[in-house]
Specification:
With 137 residues, the chain is an all-alpha fold. It is built from seven helices and no strands.
């Protein structure tokens, strides 16, 4: 039993080394998209990865800001739909209260920001976003 770690260890080290080099190679051959749409979607990919500051930075980028009315995916979701779906209340507040984005607008499936907020996978964030949409907007 003591010999097993000695045999496994070289394979673990070799696999780790190969994995690091493959990651570098993949970023060289196909770098991650850097459009405002991709950066915004990446920032709000899911409630567990939510980075509201990064999403707000994309919205406020002086060089290449995100068009808040542009469809961001095949479902026709705009920035307010994506922010509500991710439970990003601060981003929804920026879009609706400061930029005047209409909360009644529906995506390609007929869902509004309130629908998306209700479907958010993080109940506290869903509640905060829905409350914002209902009470402040």
């Amino acid at each position: 039993k003591t010999a097993t770690p000695l045999v496994v260890q070289p394979f673990t080290i070799m696999f780790s080394w190969a994995n690091r080099h493959l990651e570098k190679l993949s970023e060289t051959l196909a770098p991650p998209p850097s459009t405002p749409q991709h950066r915004f979607l990446a920032a709000l990919a899911s409630p567990s990865v939510r980075d509201e500051n990064a999403a707000l930075a994309v919205l406020n980028d002086p060089v290449e800001p995100l068009d808040p009315y542009a469809g961001l995916n095949q479902r026709g979701m705009t920035a307010v739909h994506v922010a509500a779906a991710g439970g990003a209340a601060a981003v929804v507040r920026e879009l609706v209260l400061r930029r005047g984005v209409a909360i009644e607008s529906a995506d390609g499936e007929g869902m509004t920001a309130l629908h998306h907020a209700g479907a958010c996978g993080d109940p506290p964030s869903a509640l905060a976003t829905a409350r914002l949409l209902l009470e402040e907007c």
